[in-house]
Amino acid sequence: MPEASGYVRPAAIDDFLTYLVVVFARSEATASAYGRDLEALDRHLRSTGHGIVEATPQEIVGFLAAAGNRLSPRSVARYASSIRGIYRYLMIVGAIAIDPTENLRLPGTAQAIPKALRVDQVAQLIESVPTADPIGIRDRAMLELLYASGMRISELTGLNLDQLANEPGWILVTGKGDKERLVPVSRLAQEALQRYLEMARPQVARGATGAVFLNTRGARLTRQGAWYALKARAATAGLGPLFSPHVLRHSMATHLVEAGADLRVVQELLGHASLSTTELYTKVSVAHLTSIYTRTHPRALEGSGRQL
Question: DSSP character for 115?
């Protein structure tokens, strides 16, 4: 793709991005993000006289090391994910015989433990939302559903009415890659959703839209619109700096693991493709248990000056 600088993106990158969208049903936004990462790699490789197809493991490690000097570990890990993806693709189509990322290791890029609200903070947030008007009823239903189900905000705003027509207490959620999963919904969330559908949604609905959550104009509530609405509710509840809609997803998973839920169950509820992603929450649980042990075990308190 020509640019003012004269740079032309190699066909290998364009072909890979098309493969992501067509075969794996990745979004255009995701493909664009992969494209930016791979363009950065290609520019680096060109400075060494090579291109994407000719890259060596040492050149890729050098690129990631240079990125590590100016970017966060999370950003470097994202680069690595994009790079691994294109070389797996090039192996599949026979463009290369050896995958230069096969033994790639990234020291210092361990995932951070997700932030989570305490159970009492979740209750404080939800119960702080007044339900005297349709938007308050809507926002409270969204908060209840996010915490009850562990849905992503995009999954919540993408809900259609026909996804609610399953067994009572269950919702059909469409996740990444259009993969569907059934998630249970708590009694409180069911009641909040029913209140919204019966008392609030009809007041703002316009036309025949099948979206569950609507904005004040009667159109589907966007992900950004929901984010801002719920962030404002959190600020009113005094939890603004701690909150994002994704934090409720983390909180739900953390609270389940702390209560002894099986990781496979949590994986299924969250729609994680790999159990290794869900295992991140065991770190939270271990930290929680360690804190309780340190506060309560008689021998753990030795030297602390505390008496039981």
Answer: P
Answer yes or no: 50 catalytic. no
Q: Is the dihedral of CA 170, 172, 176, 177 positive or negative?
A: positive
Q: Is 250 a catalytic site residue?
A: no
Q: How large is the C-alpha radius of gyration of the chain?
A: 23
Active site residue 152: yes
β-pairing, 170-174 with 180-184? antiparallel
Task: Give me the catalytic one of 79, 89, 196, 281.
Answer: 281
Q: Which of 44, 249, 250, 255 is catalytic?
A: 249
Q: How far is CA 305 from the centre of its chain?
A: 43
Chain centroid to Cα 270, Å, comes to: 9
Q: Is 176 a catalytic residue?
A: yes
What is the residue type of 258?
E
**Residue 281 appears among annotated catalytic residues:** yes
Identify the architecture of domain 119-291 in CATH: Orthogonal Bundle (1.10)
Per the confidence metrics, is the pTM higher than 0.85? no
Question: Residues 30-85: pLDDT tens digits?
Answer: 889 999 999 999 999 988 888 899 888 888 888 888 888 788 777 888 888 899 99
Q: By CB neighbour count within 10 A (0-12 exposed, 13-18 middle, 19+ buried), where does 230 fall?
A: buried
Query: Cα separation of 186 and 183, whole Å?
Result: 10
Query: Which one of 26, 140, 201, 272 is the catalytic residue?
Result: 272
Selected catalytic residue, list 152, 201, 233, 250? 152
Helices 280-296, 245-258: crossing angle, 10 deg rounding: 60
Picking from 262, 242, 303, the residue whose alpha carbon sits closest to that of residue 120 is: 242
Catalytic residue check, 246: yes
